Amino acid sequence: MDIIKLEHVTKQYDDGFIALNDISLTIESGKFYSLLGPSGSGKTTILRIMAGFSEPTEGKVYFAGQDITALDASKRQINTVFQNYALFPHMNVYENVAFGLEIKKQKKSKIQAAVKDALHMVQLDDFANREISELSGGQQQRVAIARALVNQPKVLLLDESLSALDKHLRKDMQFELRAIQKKLGITFIFVTHDQEEALAMSDEIFVLDKGKIQQSGSPVDIYDEPVNDFVARFIGDSNIVLGRMVRDFEVEFVNRRFECADAGIPAGEKVEIVLRPEDLDLVRPEDGKLDVIVQSQLFLGDHYEIKAKDMDDNEWLIHSTNATQVGKEVGVFFDSEDIHVMRFGESEADFDKRLETYEGDETGEKR
User: Fold this and answer.
1) Cβ neighbours of 105 (radius 10 Å)
2) 314-339 b/e (C-beta count within 10 Å ≥ 16 → b)
3) Residue 164 CB: number of other CB atoms within 10 A?
4) Nearest 5 degrees, angle CA 117-CA 122-CA 126?
5) Residues 239 and 209 sit within 8 Å (Cβ to Cβ)
6) Whole-number CA gyration radius for the chain
7) CATH top class, domain 237-359
8) Is 171 exposed, middle or buried (0-12, 13-18, 19+ CB in 10 A)?
9) pTM (2 decimals)?
10) 3-class SS at 240?
């Protein structure tokens, strides 16, 4: 069932800046969504409009089929966990979690039971009397979530709420948030600029840039089938080269033809080819589909990050569990399913200009 729908929402500020440009999206009940994009892409603006903290310049916001575009934030069945948690430092944990229920003038016994359940949900059963200043960042994060959940919202919005935590605690909280969401079955909408975070937790991701949704889909779809250059480069590492479609299931790039898994693109059309670095295997030169010279190698713990160049001076990023040697000629092997073909949206003149940039000028130098 659809719980939130934005229809042709635009947000323009007084200085003329357009934060959202004709955004339409649908949020289904009971799923974990992420709004993913760089700073200034519009993701937090979407969250604020959903919560009722900001009104769109144009467009409509619907909640369970009802128009809530002008509805006050306090009357929406939506709660928000902010980036800085917004806890009250003069109140202890119990008082922070109970605050919303006390404002609603609920019975003391009901408040006590609800707070106890909420603290149990976030594994803070014995922390009710702790002062906020006595808590770690992860514990404060859990208190903020408990305070939001105690009001039994239909939707929980989380605005960059893990960004202040260290790497290991952030990983732990990713698992906990996902577990809480699944247990409660309510809708979570999570704002982040961290690709790994979005991929790890989400049922569906909306990738934003410059106030527009660039792509939406499951984490696997977003990673394996990026629709454009921005998504391919923003989600993980990518090798992107220019090419042309030969026919269905055959594409040409780096002056060679390769079998691929893509069809439906007209023969001769200009395309961009995406090859993920983890899909490239180092082999003997005679066994590879490409010949490259290793330029650099870094050990990153679970793999080596290798940079290489082919004979046409194209740069390749390779992730391998096996070490090689700088300056060595090696082969690069990949399967046809590893080749992702993207439609090329620029004009022929733009394509030719970028092709020159990729290939270098007459001196062979990159521009």
Assistant:
1) 7
2) bebbbbbeeeeeeeeebbbbbeeebb
3) 15
4) 75
5) no
6) 25
7) mainly beta
8) middle
9) 0.83
10) strand
User: Rounded to whole angstroms, how far apart are CA atoms 217 and 215?
Assistant: 7
Convert the pLDDT of each residue in 251-292 to its tens digit. Answer: 999 999 999 999 999 999 999 999 999 999 999 999 999 999
> 10 Å Cβ neighbour count for 185?
9
Q: What is the pLDDT of residues 67-119, one digit of tens each?
A: 999 999 989 999 888 877 788 899 999 999 999 888 888 888 999 999 998 89
* Tokens representing residue 234 in the block: 């923003």
Pairing of strands 32-36, 304-310: unpaired
2-224: CATH, from 3.40.50.1980, 1.10.10.10, 3.90.45.10, 3.40.50.300 = 3.40.50.300
What is the end-to-end Cα distance of the chain in Å, rounded?
51
CA distances from 64 to 8, 27, 113, 336 (A): 17, 10, 28, 44
